[in-house]
Amino acid sequence: MEHIKKLHPVSATIIIGTLFARMAMFMTIPFLAIYLTSVKGVSASLAGAIIGISSIVGLFGGFFGGYFSDRYGQEKVMKISLLMWTFVFIGFATAESVWTFFLLNALNGLCRSFFEPSSRALLSQVTKQENKLLVFNLRYAAINVGAAIGPLVGLKIGASSSTTAFFITSFVYFLYFILLVVMFSKYTIEQTHGDISEHVTLRRAVGVLGKDRVFLFAVIGMILGVIGYSQFNSTIPQYLSQYKDGVQLFSYLIVFNAITVLVVQYPVSRIGKHYSALTSIMLGIGAVALGLFGFGLFTAVPMLFVSMFVLTVGEVMMFSMTDIFIDQIAPKHMKGLYFGSMGFTAIGNAIGPWIGGLMLEHLGYGNHFLIFSLLALCTSIGFPVFLYVGGLMKATKRHIEYSL
């Protein structure tokens, strides 16, 4: 409770809203690939493409979402995104055409790519420097509490074969919208951009990012890491669905993943504070690659859970420090732009499911060792890329130091 008292009321609202919004999201999206293949009868590669389209939109949506956040304010962008999200999930519930699902998941990605950088920039803005690690970790924990509960609810209401969960998710996002409207009317957030001349033009934004080699190569490294992690939402469930009770096993793996995140997040963050965020991200990429290799190597259920544990530890090390990394290297008046431009890592989420689906389709579900070994190899290349980022940071004297 002492930690909660340190939070700005708007920060607390965003963290609580994140908990319930992600809970609703995890009732639906993780089951979408299975729903499309089993109910709509689409191929594995097409299902992967539909899953990936939201990330393709996020490539540019994150940049523009972050830009608009800095230019016009986080409040407006967040409210518009949530309202649009409400109608997107109503669309999911009523869609019949496969191509409609393409459009809806593209809009889903657009809403996420606008809302996420705005909310993170706002958290950074209203939070004192000494509390930022706490706030970003609470946000990450909220995401994973939602991920722990959401799939169980989704499994219970048959999210892989019905549309009920989409209506529920739509309702949750609408409530989140109402809550933010109330909070923003009660607490006025002052702009921190300073003089109007400091407002970022689109041309200047592109120029700044284009010259920031630390940021550019960090994005490349994260893309490779995300390619590996994205298999959890597409290739792994499709692979497991071929086996008896595979859908149920995948649901338990999602819950295990979320619970593991909650259990290991605090000790990992405590250990991680003695090292740089960069080191944590690098080790995380290595662990994600090792976890993927385990899915190819083992078929026994206990060992699949071991592989998921390794992959999850990698997830925590990789993603929990990314916001800290970006918050440190971003100029104060361009936080939204930098957070949003990390959306370019969605290249990994876009091509990862598609690559995995193609491998399943052409190499065969039984050839899982080769499939997951290749995916692990691709992911692991991110490690030396971040080694190079570390060299650039030393050369430019950009260093990250955070403490709990």
From TrEMBL:
The chain crosses the membrane at residues 12-36, 42-68, 80-104, 165-184, 213-229, 249-268, 275-298, 304-325, 337-356, 368-389. This is MFS transporter. Its main location: membrane. It holds the Pfam family MFS_1. It is found in: Cell membrane. Residues 10-394 form the Major facilitator superfamily (MFS) profile domain. It is a multi-pass membrane protein. InterPro entries: MFS, MFS_dom, MFS_trans_sf. One of its GO terms (cellular component) is plasma membrane. Keywords: Cell membrane, Membrane, Transmembrane, Transmembrane helix, Transport. One of its GO terms (molecular function) is transmembrane transporter activity.
